Amino acid sequence: MSQRVFVTGGSGHVGANLLRALVGRGDRVRALVRPNSGREAFEGLELELVTGDVRDPGSLAELVRGCDAGYHTAALVQTVRGREMELYRTNVLGTRNVLAAARAAGVGRVVVTSSLGAVGQPESRPCSEEDAFNPFEDHLPYEESKAWMEHECLKAVVTGQDVVLVVSTAVLGPYDFKPSRMGRVVLDFANGKLGAYIPGGFEFVGAGDLARGHLLAMERGQKGERYIVSTRFLTVDELMALLETLTGRKRPRRLPAGAMLVLAHVSSFVLNRVAPARPQRFTPDAVRLLSLHRKADIGKARRELGYEPGAIEDALRAAYASFVARGLIEGAVPSAAPELAR
Ligand SMILES: NC(=O)c1ccc[n+]([C@@H]2O[C@H](COP(=O)([O-])OP(=O)(O)OC[C@H]3O[C@@H](n4cnc5c(N)ncnc54)[C@H](OP(=O)(O)O)[C@@H]3O)[C@@H](O)[C@H]2O)c1
Question: Can you tell me which atom of ligand 1 is nearest the CA of 13?
Answer without folding.
Answer: 16
